[in-house]
Specification:
The chain has helices spanning 44-53, 66-75, 101-112, 145-161, 184-197, 203-229, 272-284, 312-325, 338-342, 344-355; strands at 33-39, 58-62, 79-84, 167-170, 234-238, 257-263, 294-300, 332-335. It has 356 residues and is an alpha/beta fold.
Length: 356
């Protein structure tokens, strides 16, 4: 299965961690700071220490060895979250989301594009103005009861297998075309929905409203199920892929920590005005729907010398804007961990910047 390159952290990351990590004596700032770390299979002790020494106190991880990671997380005060998504497994492909012929043509051209940056493709973030994009990665249709049942069984298995995890970190919960699903089930449900409100709004607006409401409903149903299984478990989410009619809908999600993008991974990097505006919205509206939910600014940091490179300078410039827009908050979410694994000085500087 093809997974977007920048979101997958290979097991070799830990192997490149320098032998002299940052000092554990440095004072860590307050707040919730989640790093999306992917699979950690090598040099676990050093890797967890590097995560802590970089200022993070929570890590979203994938793989089958979470029970091995948890003691090291406890040792370095890093909470372990299971990285949960709705990418279809082989036996669930029949329940994948469907798109229009136009969107399928976009996907075909995207897959055929072998350029490093795919001509400005934003990989699930907000497309460039005037561009229409789709997500390369297939996603399950959450209008299907089979998807809901599949996710609940998956959560059952997670808690049975990893009873000591701190929480679940949702990701990849959205629409592949960033607007809605066009499978037969989704279309039928929308037609029922529209019949009830067609006198109040036009069809296009109703479809956007239906798509958003059912997206939120699905996520919140999973949150409710988690809390029923494990009342003390924490729930985080990254609002991804983007929902174009309302990119900052995350405060509707019943989670403990809602990571919403305020600075994306790829060029052209977001303007200072946009970063500040998004950060203020995420913070100021975090408890509009759920009083116990915290809005967490998310910054994309992906470094690859072959392309899609964000420098340390750009990252800290964005971080400074986020900090000014959210004073007295040490909350932050970053993906990916690779730059911190490669460069211990990056983590040291991050701690100092957050603590200012």
């Amino acid at each position: 299965m093809k997974i977007i390159l920048f979101r997958i952290i290979t097991v070799c990351i830990a192997a490149i961690i320098c032998a002299t990590p940052a000092s554990a004596e440095e004072k860590k700032p307050d707040g919730f700071r989640l790093i999306w770390a992917g699979g950690i299979n090598l040099n676990i002790d050093k890797t967890m220490k590097r995560i802590s020494d970089s200022g993070f106190n929570a890590a979203a991880v994938s793989g089958a060895n979470l029970n091995t990671l948890i003691p090291y997380g406890q040792k370095y005060n890093v909470e372990i979250y299971y990285w949960f998504h709705i990418i279809p497994t082989e036996d669930m492909k029949q329940f994948a989301q469907q798109m229009s012929p136009e969107d399928n043509e976009i996907l075909k051209n995207l897959n055929a594009d072998k350029s490093v940056d795919k001509n400005g493709y934003q990989f699930g973030g907000e497309p460039l103005p005037g561009h229409r994009e789709v997500l390369e990665t297939p996603l399950l249709c959450f209008h299907r009861p089979e998807t809901v049942e599949f996710c609940k069984k998956h959560l059952d298995a997670i808690f049975e297998r990893f009873p000591q995890i701190t929480g679940i970190a949702f990701d990849y919960i959205g629409y592949r075309n960033y607007r809605g699903c066009q499978c037969l089930q989704s279309t039928a449900l929308f037609e029922e929905y529209y019949k009830k409100i067609q006198d109040k709004m036009n069809r296009e607006t109703a479809l956007e409203q239906f798509s958003l409401e059912t997206l939120v409903q699905f996520s919140n149903e999973l949150s409710a199920y988690i809390r029923k299984l494990q009342p003390k478990v924490k729930i985080a989410t990254h609002v991804y892929p983007v929902f174009m009619p309302d990119p900052l809908y995350g405060n509707r999600l019943d989670v403990d920590y809602c990571c919403q993008t305020v600075a994306w991974f790829f060029k052209p990097y977001w303007t200072a005005e946009k970063i500040e505006r998004y950060t203020r919205y995420v913070i100021d509206n975090e408890k509009k729907y759920f009083p116990d939910s915290s809005g967490i600014p998310f910054i994309g940091l992906y470094q690859n010398p072959k392309g899609h490179f964000k420098s340390d300078e750009e990252f800290f410039k964005e971080l400074e804007i986020v900090k000014k827009a959210s004073p007295s908050r040490g909350d932050l979410s970053v993906c990916t961990f690779a730059p911190f694994a490669q460069n211990p000085e990056l983590g040291k500087k991050l701690i100092l910047e957050i603590a200012k």
